[in-house]
Amino acid sequence: MLDSVLSEPHEAKGRVRNTDPISQNHREILTSPWCWQYAVLLNRFSYPFELEKDLHLKGYHTLFQGSLPNYPKSMKCYLSRTPGRIPSERHQIGNLKKYYLLNAASLLPVLALELRDGEKVLDLCAAPGGKSIALLQCACPGYLHCNEYDSLRLKWLRQTLESFIPQPLINVIKVSELDGREMGDAQPEMFDKVLVDAPCSNDRSWLFSSDSQKASCRISQRRNLPLLQIELLRSAIKALRPGGILVYSTCTLSKAENQDVISEILNSHSNIMPMDIKGIARTCSHNFTFAPTGQECGLLVIPDKGKAWGPMYVAKLKKSWSTGKW
Predict the structure, then answer these.
(1) Are 77 and 39 a contacting pair, CB within 8 Å?
(2) Catalytic residue among 146, 200, 251, 284
(3) Is 217 a catalytic residue?
């Protein structure tokens, strides 16, 4: 059943066509949690110097050090070449956590957004909150709107923000429970930057299952996701001011949820332009393995031996001043 989930399902003449973009080596890493690696994102609002020293002694090194020209100096992320993880910190009311454990590839959408101090930014599908936390490690926005439609995930998001962000900064953050497809109409042309980390067929959590019935159900769900993702992007475009930047990301290998979604947006919106981010792949190849996407505006990180990060698809778009087609 794993093979059928890992392969992109395309129905043609009654058959399923395998267009799996990864090799057997990548497949084994993706479905083997003991091979996974975890990066350590330091919380600039609370971490002690001793923590950095301890990470160095354990063989961790700084992610992106010297490789990205616009990498924010305030963001510090450490990773090890070997699998494993340091213990997670428990949530304690009134105490800020010192670090956040994450898949290092999930920082790429945040860095692609290039957030600057004072900007208004929307994280449209924000739970569990890791990318919102990472955004606040990069800069101090004038306004950060974190939206999550799922009520259970919304509680997780609120707890994450409370665990990492000091009270003065909490005052510039709004948390909402709106259907993301309605955000554009609710707040038209409000934001300088918008991140759409869309619901997707999460290949790490979806694939690691011995339940064949559940796997079949997920394949069916996978076919319905692109429409939702396109609708979320159309809403995000409405919420974005002319001249603003939109970053779309997923944690799936599915071309239907990645390149095909972006192609549909570019073909149906004359005021949306692709932005070349191939430079990130060139400068970060020592930390990540990238698969070809056929798009200058899109990157796809796939898990590899010693670089077990991803999957993570990232696309960067810009809204022009011309009128688009809705």
Answers:
(1) yes
(2) 251
(3) no
